[in-house]
Design goal:
By secondary structure, this protein is α+β, with helices and mostly antiparallel strands. It has two domains: 179 residues, no CATH class; 138 residues, no CATH class. It is built from 16 helices and ten strands. Helix 2 crosses helix 13, helix 2 packs antiparallel against helix 15 and helix 11 runs parallel beside helix 15. The longest helix has 37 residues. The chain starts with a helix and ends with a helix.
């Protein structure tokens, strides 16, 4: 029977090509709008490392100015800074409670000395620890992260991103080679495979084109920052008591209340989390007695999902666009229902003859529902193609700009599956009423007119 219903549906489409094209187009445009917005919304709101959501924690302590008017986030003045001071970060890092721990800051430097390189290459450099790569499951194409001894040294070791290795060494295995960073010789120990999480969940401090910016170009051990006494290039926030001397030297920076270092810890068990939070609270009490930490105790361990939420990675504009896209799809489906009902009622005389010849209401319903299913399939296919074109157009529009959000537009398979499933199911549900309505029509009325 299915083959028979399909032949009837195709004949119906040929009799009314204009209406058929109008319905397919309406469904397709509604689906395309949903694919673009839902794909981007899912990409923005997703947790890029969901499998470690309950073991990775961002560390925050509120060492900030007690004056509420000087809050880092005026919308939430009680929220602690994302980053830590040098004094607090290095103290907490010395704890042996976490399974792994890492500090993150940024420097500016230039790479030189690669074969055939004619000019230094400016790179955004992340100073961090070897645990950074292991904590965040960062893939390597060649080599691997440095060891704990290199952190303590610090040893002159460096990890390159895939992009920098492609540019300097044409994608070849460069592990073991030497390269100059800021005119100092470093040994390459690893080259990352493609790794560019969006959003950049481990650092939401808006250091490079916002939450959807690219990751660092190269990585060196954290202690090089203090060894070289280089002024950080990332996000920094200053405050000091009235009359405090301005922070102009590196020594003043490390002894000040300036926050500029991110800290993450890996705590696999609840007992470890409680122990580390107790460790933080004890340190806070000690520092408060010494005259620091003038605000109420506000120590936190934030899971990745919580970290994304408190930073409002998905803004209200994105949610509004998502609602508008589904409202547009709903309007398209409502119009399709009206056209389908008019079309089915127009073919009611033929349906009446089939009923008089013995076709049941169920068979009439199945016949018209098959036609709806074909419309849904055609509209979904065209909508998928239009959605792909929309995302490609969005990407091309921002290809040469600094808008990292637009440049990162891409086809997200999970978002597409959700959009197509929802749209196809909605189209089928929308077609239930016209198919049911024509099946309830009395055949006698139409037979009298034949």
């Amino acid at each position: 029977m299915l083959g028979y219903y399909l032949r009837l549906a195709l004949k119906s489409f040929r009799r009314t090509p204009g209406l058929t094209a109008l319905m397919v187009g309406a469904i397709a445009f509604g689906i395309a709008a949903c694919i673009v917005t839902l794909t981007e919304y899912h990409r923005m709101s997703s947790n890029p490392i969901w499998w470690k959501n309950n073991v990775l924690y961002a560390v925050t302590m509120d060492s900030w100015d007690p004056n509420p008017q000087d809050a880092l986030d005026p919308a939430n003045p009680t929220l602690a800074p994302d980053q830590l001071t040098y004094q607090d970060a290095t103290y907490l890092y010395n704890s042996d409670i976490p399974k792994r721990k890492t500090l993150i800051a940024y420097l500016s430097g230039a790479l030189s000395g690669a074969p055939g390189q004619t000019a230094p290459l400016w790179v955004r450099t992340q100073v961090t620890t070897g645990d950074f790569f292991r904590m965040f499951d960062i893939p390597f194409e060649y080599g691997g992260p440095w060891n704990a001894a290199a952190d303590r040294g610090p040893e002159p070791v460096i990890v390159l991103s895939q992009q920098e290795n492609d540019e300097l060494f044409s994608g070849a295995d460069s592990v073991g080679r030497d390269i100059l960073w800021d005119r100092r010789r470093f040994r390459i120990v690893g080259v990352l495979n493609h790794w560019d999480p969006r959003p950049r969940y481990y650092d939401l401090s808006h250091t490079a084109h916002g939450d959807f910016g690219s990751s660092a170009d190269v990585f060196i051990p954290f202690k090089w920052d203090s060894t070289l006494q280089m002024w950080p290039s990332g996000q920094m926030a200053f405050w000091g008591p009235p009359g405090a001397a301005p922070v102009v030297t590196y020594q003043q920076l490390t002894g000040s209340e300036t926050v500029w270092i991110l800290m993450w810890v890996e705590l696999p068990t609840a007992a470890q989390r409680e122990r580390f939070l107790d460790f933080m609270n004890a340190y806070w009490a000690q520092q408060r007695r010494a005259g620091r930490f003038q605000r109420p105790q506000n120590n936190h361990l934030w899971k990745v999902s919580q970290w994304l939420r408190i930073h409002h990675v998905v803004n209200d504009d994105s949610r509004l666009l998502l609602r508008l896209a589904f409202a547009f799809l709903a309007v398209c489906l409502i119009n399709t229902v009206g056209i389908l009902l008019a079309k089915f009622l127009r073919g009611a005389p033929m349906t009446g003859i089939r009923r008089a010849l013995g076709a049941s209401r169920r068979q009439i319903f199945e016949q018209h529902l098959t036609e709806v299913a074909l419309l849904s399939l055609a509209g979904s296919g065209l909508g998928l193609a239009l959605g792909a074109l929309g995302l490609l157009g969005l990407h091309a529009m921002y290809a040469n700009s600094f808008d990292a959000y637009g440049r990162s537009a891409h086809f997200d398979s999970l978002g597409v599956i959700w959009a197509l499933t929802l749209a196809a199911a909605s189209t089928l549900l929308a077609g239930l009423y016209p198919a049911w309505r024509i099946g309830r029509a009395s055949p006698a009325l139409y037979l009298k007119n034949q």
